[in-house]
């Protein structure tokens, strides 16, 4: 069995290889949580992302999703799965199901954060979803959103007295 620290290191390497930094994810956390925590600092967001990325179940989800994206790029999946994943078909939904394993870490607030990020697609999520750079990111865009959603949920759960009601305008 792989050591958790080895899986964590490999997860960070895979994210970097696919053009995703911890800073990118922290910026998503800041984007989604700042209206509810006005004194939030980007460093707190980075720490929360690192905490989420230290969990073995998160490593497993990210490693699995990126591997499926890579296999799709190499045209190594059987049909019709190859076509479905390559086209990121909207009715496929397994990419979101894998992301839910991460979102689930911090309860219902993670689900609402994830839904919002998936709808709005800010920052790195938009870049990944655009297929910029020729990569298949069917799984990765959802996994990155899930890590950000979980990290935002963790912040809210750890310091509920800092959370304020806010109406976010687009």
Automatic annotation (TrEMBL):
Gene3D superfamilies: PgpA-like. Residues 23-157 form the YutG/PgpA domain. CDD domains: PgpA. InterPro entries: PgpA-like_sf (IPR036681), Put_PGPase (IPR026038), YutG/PgpA (IPR007686). This is Phosphatidylglycerophosphatase A. It comes from Veillonella hominis.
